[in-house]
Write a structure and sequence with these properties.
The protein has 661 residues and is of the alpha+beta class. It has 22 helices and 21 strands.
Length: 661
């Protein structure tokens, strides 16, 4: 069969071509319109935004951390300074192989394992575009060697910074504290805008408590960078606002004398001005060098500090808690007068053993046979337990606790330093809450001589003594006395008004207690006699020896070996001067001291001697007459029994602990 050839329809094909051509042209026009619209969107409507983004590709803002405020003592002695230094920093996003980079850098600049550990830790906490410190405090030789090899390490640079330094090292470690590198916990609590570019933050002490004052406000500078991120030129600079300077109330001379007086023996001392609550000295022994922590302490140094048996990192002045022993007796005596339970002339017969009515168990005095008939002044001078056993029992634990609480026992004093311990003030409520047990009269008896559940910090006792010395007017202890905007600006004093009304309603009561405390130091029969000799002002004081172990039998301990006694006792001494118009109150504790007067008393006296040297109006030294100070208002010295063979009173039973229950 013959096939037919299809006839070509030129007209239809031409029409189809035109339609396709028009469709293609329309698509081209639509694409051009979209492109033009996009150009308009980018170049007209959002010109400012994209111009800024483009500019940011070559202009980089660099934060300027503020200079940290300086710290001085009350006389302008520099205690915390900022020293120019250089550190090595790495920008992670500019590094392709971090492990290889660190290995190569280590061949040029020595990197310790502590450096690497700190770097990796902070690397996890930072964003990839942020600089991370690798090595702090570069030497000039290390800076020179890196400069020659700078081209090999993109993303790595040497950056200047101000390094915190503590010129007096361990002397103020427990007061000032230290700064250290910001960690993950700090990042969560700190304002990121205010701490932009900052690598360190106050960790403990004044550095932490006054962080907001010392830190300042960051600034920034706009710099032009090349493709490798290196700075070509600075376009704008907005300087940071430095932190404010701080002036402590502590006198460096008194602080140094106090620390030297301990001669390395563990303990603490606090000196306060009763007129305003300013802390004149605060010492905790042993101590440590805070400079070790600034740029990251090594594992070896940290292990040595934390593993030391004498715990140098513990601030004993505010966190060490100890039974106060007989140092509480002046406050108990004042309570008896203020509550109307005693008069200064009321007497108590001390036979050597005190019995609670209806009980056969006895509570001993320090001397066999007792002290005979004593009034309030002699009870303080001799530290007669029987007088205070009976007085505390007559007060009852509820009135006893309420009265002693007014002196700040059992709660933080409110000092401007973080981490203060509360201690323990024996009370019915405290025991029920702690042990779920009732209160017993025997516990009231031993509370009256500072034993039993008692636990106080040296700061608490110094605060109570300052309140007593100030005739009952309390002031919250303060370490910072003034701030300063700049080194040339005037100092701005911080006010410290009384924290409450006077606890003393009858000045005759105060004078009776003060006279008893004068007799402790100045009367030949006093437990602290001799500590006032050669001092131009009258000293009032009270010793205290707190047992660390309970008595197991009725026999007196005849072991007089000082080393043995020191292992069993906490030695206290508190004193203030001038007795008639007090300007300094000192509390000292030795963790291992044979007796309060002979062990802790000389330390307190050396602190007073150092304070005296700072007083421009101090009179020349005048020896004391044999029977105390003329014109002191002390009662006449009638014939009395000889002074105790042991210079301190000890309770019938201690039942105390190293730390509060």
């Amino acid at each position: 069969m013959k096939l037919r050839r299809a006839i070509k329809d030129a007209r239809s094909e031409g029409e189809l071509f035109r339609r396709r051509a028009l469709a293609g042209f329309a698509l081209i026009l639509l694409g051009l319109a979209g492109l033009i619209g996009r150009y308009v969107f980018l170049q007209v409507e959002h010109y400012d935004e994209f111009a800024t983004r483009s500019q940011n590709n070559r202009v980089k803002p660099i934060p300027i951390p503020p200079a940290r405020g300086l710290i001085y003592d009350r006389n302008g002695v520099l205690l915390a300074n900022n020293v120019p230094a250089f550190r090595l920093e790495v920008v992670p996003e500019q590094v392709d192989d971090m492990k290889a980079l660190l290995a190569q850098l280590g061949q040029i600049i020595p990197l310790s394992q502590d450096d690497l550990d700190a770097f990796h830790k902070q690397l996890k906490q930072s964003r990839r575009f942020e600089s991370v410190p690798l090595k702090m405090r570069l030497t000039e030789d290390e800076i020179d060697r890196f400069a020659v090899n700078r081209w090999r390490f993109p993303g790595v640079d040497v950056v200047p910074y101000l390094n915190r330094r503590y010129p007096l090292g361990p002397l103020f470690a427990h007061v000032i504290g230290y700064v250290s590198r910001i960690d993950a916990d700090d990042v969560a609590r700190l304002d990121p805008a205010r701490y932009k570019g900052t690598t360190h933050v106050g960790r403990i002490g004044i550095e932490r408590s006054y962080e907001d004052v010392l830190h300042g406000t960051p600034g920034y500078e706009l710099v032009e960078v090349n493709a490798n991120g290196q700075t070509q030129r600075v376009l704008q600079t907005h300087p940071a606002t430095p932190g404010r300077n701080i002036y402590l109330s502590i006198d460096e001379r008194i602080q140094k004398a106090a620390e030297q007086a301990f001669d390395g023996r563990p303990g603490a001392a606090v000196a306060i001005d009763p007129r305003n609550g300013q802390v004149l000295a605060m010492v905790s022994v042993p101590t440590y060098d805070p400079n070790l922590f600034v740029d990251g302490i090594s594992h070896a140094d940290y292990d040595a500090l934390t593993g030391a048996p004498d715990k140098p990192l513990l601030n004993r002045a505010i966190r060490g808690v100890y039974p106060p022993g007989s140092t509480v007796k002046p406050y108990v005596a004042l309570g008896g007068l203020e509550l109307g339970l005693r008069t200064p002339s009321d007497t108590v017969l001390s036979t050597g053993t005190f019995y609670i009515p209806g009980q056969s168990r006895g509570y001993r005095d320090d001397r066999r046979g007792g002290f005979g008939t004593v009034d309030l002044r002699k009870a303080i001078m001799w530290s007669v337990n029987t007088y205070f056993y009976k007085l505390s029992l007559d007060m009852g634990i509820d009135r006893f606790s309420a009265w002693m609480g007014k002196f700040g026992f059992g709660r933080p004093t409110g000092i401007d330093l973080d981490g203060e311990a509360s201690g323990v003030l024996p009370s019915r409520e405290w025991k029920a809450r702690r042990f779920k047990q009732p209160w017993y009269p025997g516990e009231t008896v031993i509370a009256g001589i500072g034993q039993g559940y008692w636990a106080v910090t040296p700061l608490q006792l110094a605060h109570a003594l300052a309140t007593l010395a100030g005739r009952g007017v309390p002031h919250a202890p303060r370490l910072v006395m003034a701030t300063q905007v700049g080194v040339d600006a005037p100092k701005l004093p911080l006010s410290d008004p009384p924290s409450g009304p006077s606890l003393v309603t009858n000045q005759a009561s105060w004078q009776a207690v003060e006279q008893g405390m004068q007799m402790v130091v100045n009367d030949p029969r006093g437990t602290g006699y001799g500590l006032g000799k050669g001092f131009p002002y009258t000293i009032a004081g009270k010793s205290g020896t707190a047992e660390r172990y309970s008595r197991r039998g009725d026999a007196y301990n005849e072991n007089k070996n000082l080393a043995y006694l020191a292992s069993r006792h906490r030695a206290w001494f508190e004193m203030f001067a001038p007795a008639e118009d007090p300007r300094i109150a000192v509390a000292v504790v030795l963790e291992q001291g044979a007796w309060g007067a002979s062990s802790a008393g000389p330390i307190a006296r050396k602190i007073l001697d150092a304070w005296l040297a700072t007083q421009p109006d101090a009179p020349p030294d005048t020896p004391l007459p044999p029977e105390g100070k003329p014109g002191s208002g002390l009662p006449s010295s009638a014939p009395t029994p000889a002074a105790p063979t042991e210079p301190e009173d000890l309770p019938a039973e201690a039942a105390t602990q190293e730390t509060p229950p």
